[in-house]
Amino acid sequence: MSASIHTSVLPAEVMSYLAIEPGMTVVDGTLGGGGHTRLLVEAVGPTGRVIALDRDPAAIERGARELAGKPIRFAQANFCDLPEVLDAVGLERVDRVLLDIGLSSDQLADHERGFSFDSDGPLDLRFDPTEGEPAWRMINRLRPETLADIIYEFGEERFSRRIARRIADARGQTPIRSSRDLARIVMSAVPRQRPPARIHPATRTFQALRIAVNEELKSLRIALERIPTRLAPGGRLAVISFHSLEDRLVKEAFRNRQVWENLTKSPIEAGDDETLRNPRSRSAKLRAAQVLLAPPTPAG
Ligand SMILES: C[S@@+](CC[C@H](N)C(=O)[O-])C[C@H]1O[C@@H](n2cnc3c(N)ncnc32)[C@H](O)[C@@H]1O
Is the Cβ atom of 79 under 6 angstroms away from ligand 1? Predict the structure, then answer.
């Protein structure tokens, strides 16, 4: 497996809002390429520790190799299961948690996973390829109306109905298997844009299916409820999201004044320098909050 090609977004801003002190215990709920994890491990120093989670076994395997010898515990897990992960290592509470949600450039580049439009591999789109239903099965199974709803809601795609109808026509002839198959179907369904759009015409459809097969909003909703029960008094959570529905969930959770003191009135976004260097950062939104000094009791 090759080295990570992922560039972490908003690194300075994340570190500023997390305000980590030496000796702290910090969770990186989305290890990905390990860029943020490296910063976290440096900040906690030799007396602190980092627990790094990812749903993707490949990210965990790469991280464990590239970050060997550092005080990091790796766990292949969904960040909504953080309480169970902490129980397994005998930890009641932690000081900081970071979630940088979505897809990494390593996953995008891996043609076996189906995240890129020109991939001839199976249209899988799962973060954890051992859990749940691959996207190719989902799009060959669902009713066109349900598919259209998914593409509209999670992809914010205005041509969702046309795309779903075209998928239904295509699969009636031969089952859809690869990402390339789906990208071609989407391109044939949407009108050609002039001037050409900044993003590939299939971007929104792929994003929608990825969010659906991984039940990404459900994981985030559960995590936002459970994480504060395992943060130490005054502990902080920072979340980077790339989708308006995710950002809305974070914003609403941080409004709960019985749990959180919100540290970001509006979301922090990447500056021009960063968006030039790393186009992925264009849609990133960072929010951070601190649990109150008298936190809720652990609910598990
Ligand atoms: C944007 S990348 C993280 C990049 C990382 N912060 C870095 O600096 O390299 C997102 C990662 O989160 C993982 N992921 C997405 N949803 C998850 C979840 N619910 N639980 C755990 N990991 C998740 C993905 O598998 C992916 O590796």
Answer: yes
Residues of the chain with CATH 1.10.150.170: 128-213
Fold of 128-213: DNA polymerase; domain 1 (1.10.150)
* Residue nearest atom 9 of ligand 1, based on CA coordinates: 33
- List, as one string, the DSSP characters of 95-130: EEEEEE-S--HHHHH-TTTT-STT--SB----SSTT
Q: Taking 80 as the threshold, does the pLDDT of residue 234 lie above it?
A: yes
Ligand 1: which atom is nearest the Cα of residue 31?
Answer: 5
State the architecture of 11-106+216-291 in CATH terms: 3-Layer(aba) Sandwich (3.40)
What CA–CA distance (Å, rounded) separates 144 from 129?
25
Q: How confident is the model at residue 1 (pLDDT cuts 50, 70, 90)?
A: confident
Minimal-distance CA residue to ligand 1 atom 18: 78
101 lines ligand 1 (CB under 6 A): yes
Using the predicted structure, report yes or no on whether residue 248 has a pLDDT greater than 70: yes
